[in-house]
């Protein structure tokens, strides 16, 4: 599920970050004069300023929506701490929380807030955790580029399209002027936080159309919609950006998803934050995991933009770092 197209962009961001780190940790080859001895010293001779090298492991799982950000962070972190092995799987937000409460992971990526029953399972397992926000996403509804009629939908029309009513739905059922062609549906799987979020704000607990093709792999959804003139689907904003040459993003109540409307909340009700949940005991007992989470909060804004999401305000990252520091 790696987004190689956007990881190329990540490499550019990573180079800038590494160059910045080089200037601040004394690893630059630039020569400076010692004011006491008058001799020239390399910045690399100030080991107290160098980044401490760590070793160890950390593992996580969860949201496919968060995966492009986390994949980029894991790859970039490996360049800074090559002896720390971080893995991050993709089983959906719900699947990730199941592994988290079973004690199988140190962190859980989520495209929605944790549910009461998931929090209860963690409490029962004696696992304390902390929620960190890392980016904004705009859940994006997409249609095939040949669909020229359903490019601007209202929330009410989305409900009419996606809620199961026992009929075989045609576009003409939504608007008589639209084609009398059967709608093909593509949606994230039920373990996905994207599915849960859509259920909350659009379905409002009603049943999703029964003939939808469900998949935890958003690339499968992209292929389905791009290959069928009468298809409609939804997934995270980054997946739309990567595939915008073969998809059309639907405006919702006249508002298109983009960085500005997602960050401002104007793209409502489909704008949402993305999260990482970290196990408190792992943060305290595993210096490598603590360092990775610190790295995540320091760099997730850049990585969010690199892979196609929207960075949070700087103060939210600062609050997260302060919270993390208090858990050390």
Which of globular, elongated, flat, extended, rod-shaped describes the shape?
elongated
Mean pLDDT: 87
Q: Round the Cα radius of gyration to an integer and report it.
A: 23 Å
- End-to-end separation in angstroms reads 32 Å
User: What portion of residues belong to β-strands?
Assistant: 15-25%
> At the first level of CATH, what is the class of the largest domain?
Alpha Beta
Number of helices: 13
Model regions low in confidence, pLDDT < 50 over at least 5 residues = 1-49
CATH topology of the largest domain: D-Maltodextrin-Binding Protein, domain 2
Question: How would you explain this protein's 3D organization?
Answer:
This protein has 13 helices and 14 strands. With 328 residues, the protein is α/β, with parallel strands linked by helices. It folds into two domains: 4-31 and 52-136 and 273-326, Periplasmic binding protein-like II (D-Maltodextrin-Binding Protein, domain 2); 140-269, Periplasmic binding protein-like II (D-Maltodextrin-Binding Protein, domain 2). It has a five-stranded mixed β-sheet. A five-stranded mixed β-sheet has the order 10-9-11-7-12. A two-stranded antiparallel sheet has the order 1-2. Strand 1 (31-33) and strand 2 (40-42) form a beta hairpin. The longest helix is centred in the first third of the chain and has 21 residues, at 4-24.
């Amino acid at each position: 599920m790696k987004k190689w197209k956007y990881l190329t962009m990540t490499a550019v961001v990573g180079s800038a970050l590494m160059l910045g780190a080089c200037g601040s940790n004394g690893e630059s080859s630039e020569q400076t004069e010692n004011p006491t001895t008058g001799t020239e010293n390399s910045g690399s001779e100030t080991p107290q300023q160098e980044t401490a090298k760590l070793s160890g492991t950390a593992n996580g799982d969860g949201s496919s929506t968060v995966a492009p950000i986390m994949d980029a962070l894991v790859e970039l972190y490996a360049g800074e701490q090559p002896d720390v092995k971080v893995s991050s799987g993709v089983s959906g937000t719900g699947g990730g929380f199941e592994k988290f409460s079973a004690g199988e992971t140190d962190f859980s990526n989520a495209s929605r807030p944790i549910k009461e029953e998931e929090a209860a399972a963690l409490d029962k397992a004696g696992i304390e955790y902390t929620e960190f926000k890392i980016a904004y996403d705009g859940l994006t509804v997409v249609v095939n580029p040949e669909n020229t009629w359903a490019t601007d939908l209202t929330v009410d029309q989305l409900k009419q399209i996606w809620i199961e009513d026992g009929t075989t739905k045609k576009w003409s059922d939504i608007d008589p002027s639209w084609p009398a062609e059967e709608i093909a549906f593509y949606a994230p799987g039920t373990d996905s936080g994207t599915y849960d979020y859509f259920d909350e704000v659009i379905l409002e607990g009603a049943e999703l159309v029964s003939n939808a093709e469900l998949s935890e792999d958003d690339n499968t959804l992209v292929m389905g919609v791009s290959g069928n003139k009468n298809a409609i689907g939804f997934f995270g904003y980054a997946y739309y950006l990567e595939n915008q040459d073969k998809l059309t993003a639907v405006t919702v109540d006249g508002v298109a998803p983009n960085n500005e409307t997602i960050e401002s909340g104007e793209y409502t009700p489909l704008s949402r934050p993305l999260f990482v949940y970290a196990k408190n005991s792992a943060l305290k007992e595993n210096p490598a995991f603590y360092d990775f989470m610190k790295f995540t909060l320091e760099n997730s804004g850049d990585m969010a933009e690199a892979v196609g999401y929207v960075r949070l305000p700087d103060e939210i990252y600062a609050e997260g770092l302060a919270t993390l520091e208090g858990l050390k």
